[in-house]
Write a sequence for this structure.
């Protein structure tokens, strides 16, 4: 974190340097944008084809065919979920939270897309509805559905507390993927990756720039809805921090289940096709 200014001497032109205007790193005007009206129309007459209840402090996997929708739903009480996504055909292609953050910002909502890692780099899913759109950014700079936190994990927990805790989201997701693929946990663990923190309310402190969390505004009935751009394998962990108002690796926080629902539309959105993998040649020439 940035330390107090007294540790170094400010140059005479310090304020002038601070006033330099920022430049957006990745202008997205040239990105093909999803036709949200067509996606909304495709919801008419859809059929729920699957649902998975994710128990508190556990994770469960699910499958969503390309061209289908899925929702993550709050059903009993305020609860944060950690979401991983992979290509159903190749778990080496996985959600890339860092590039998604660079393209869409620190917190996601309707119209934003979840991008896959290099060398694939294509939209995996599009957010089509968010009942927490109203929250925006609060006075602390906090908002919901972030792509800045990495997921609670037992390694950091061990580092900070000296104790072992096996219901961190990283471990939960590892167990869920192991069960889905029928492979040992140690073998699949490297495929578990940084998450979309669904319903989590987070930001950065203004003075030190530290990542913070606060009580999630989610309530039963709220949901975050996606359209699967490719065949997806997903895993969702109901975080052991509950609504993350106090801590995020805990056996004492009030935790609740989450629901994943999968919907099949009667017809695909008008003009939609599943995106191909990124077209870069991979030549990396001088």
């Amino acid at each position: 974190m940035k330390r107090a200014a007294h540790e170094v001497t400010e140059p005479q032109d310090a304020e002038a340097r601070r006033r330099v205007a920022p430049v957006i790193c990745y202008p997205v005007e040239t990105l093909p944008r999803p036709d949200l009206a067509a996606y909304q129309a495709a919801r008419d007459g859809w059929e729920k084809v699957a649902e998975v209840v994710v128990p508190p402090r556990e994770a469960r996997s699910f499958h969503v065919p390309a061209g289908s929708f899925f929702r993550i739903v709050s059903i009993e009480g305020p609860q944060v979920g950690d979401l991983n996504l992979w290509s159903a055909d190749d778990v080496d292609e996985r959600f890339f939270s860092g590039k998604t953050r660079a393209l869409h910002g620190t917190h996601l909502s309707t119209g934003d897309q979840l991008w896959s890692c290099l060398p694939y780099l294509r939209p995996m899913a599009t957010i089509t509805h968010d009942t927490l759109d109203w929250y925006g950014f609060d006075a602390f700079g906090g908002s919901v559905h972030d792509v800045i936190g990495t997921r609670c994990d037992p390694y950091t927990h061990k580092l900070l507390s000296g104790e072992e805790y096996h219901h961190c989201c990283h471990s939960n997701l590892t167990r869920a993927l192991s069960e889905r693929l029928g492979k040992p946990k140690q073998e699949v663990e490297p495929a578990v990756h940084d998450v979309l923190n669904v319903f989590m309310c987070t930001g950065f402190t203004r003075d030190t720039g530290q990542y913070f969390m606060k009580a999630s505004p989610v309530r039963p009935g709220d949901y975050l809805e996606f359209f699967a751009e490719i065949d997806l394998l997903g895993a969702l962990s109901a975080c052991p921090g509950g609504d993350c108002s106090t801590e995020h690796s805990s056996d004492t926080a009030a935790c609740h289940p989450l629901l994943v629902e999968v919907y099949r539309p009667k017809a695909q959105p008008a003009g939609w096709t599943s995106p191909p993998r990124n077209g870069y040649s991979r030549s990396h020439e001088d």
About this structure: The longest strand covers residues 196-204. Residues 78 and 243 are 5 Å apart (CA to CA).
